[in-house]
Amino acid sequence: MTTSDGFDSLHPDLIKQRKLAHSICREYSRDPSKGNLKKLRQLFAQCGEQVFIEYGFHCDYGDRIHLGDRVYINCKCTFLDGGIISIGHDCLIGPNVQIISVYHDKNAARRLDKVNFAQNVTIGNNVWIGAGAIILPGVSIGHNAIIGAGSIVTKDVSENTTVVGNPAKVI
After folding, report:
1. Which end of the chain, N or C, is less packed with Cβ atoms under 10 Å?
2. Bridge partners of 7?
3. pTM greater than 0.70 (yes/no)
4. How far is the C-alpha of 72 from the C-alpha of 5, rounded, in Å?
5. Active site residues
6. Tell me: the pLDDT tens digits for 69-93?
């Protein structure tokens, strides 16, 4: 769905796919059993070994999410995956983190058309994203970076860098 032309999230096929993903996410949240985790993992385009996802995980589609090995996703995380969300190996994602790959037109008149746009989000290996952080569309985060709790990441983050704040800045 990553296109400059945008996409219609109200298309019947996309609504159907979202309903399925939401249903599986709700089922896993109610009963985070191995069987329900398996169903959730099967939604993803790629899900590495030893990935663990706590209750409360939410995504729109699932098939645009790529998870490396040994990724830990804490409780109540939201991945809006209209674009591809790619997360490398050994990443730690704190509770209530939002990774957003979808946005709307900045032009108010065109926004009335309800078109969605997507930009991929890429997160390198061994990244730690603190609780409540928000990663916005189009952002790339380099290997070994740290995103401070509550930060809003609006721009790319270089590898081996720590960023904090709103908007997130290097410290």
Report:
1. C
2. 116
3. yes
4. 34
5. 104
6. 999 999 999 999 999 999 999 999 9
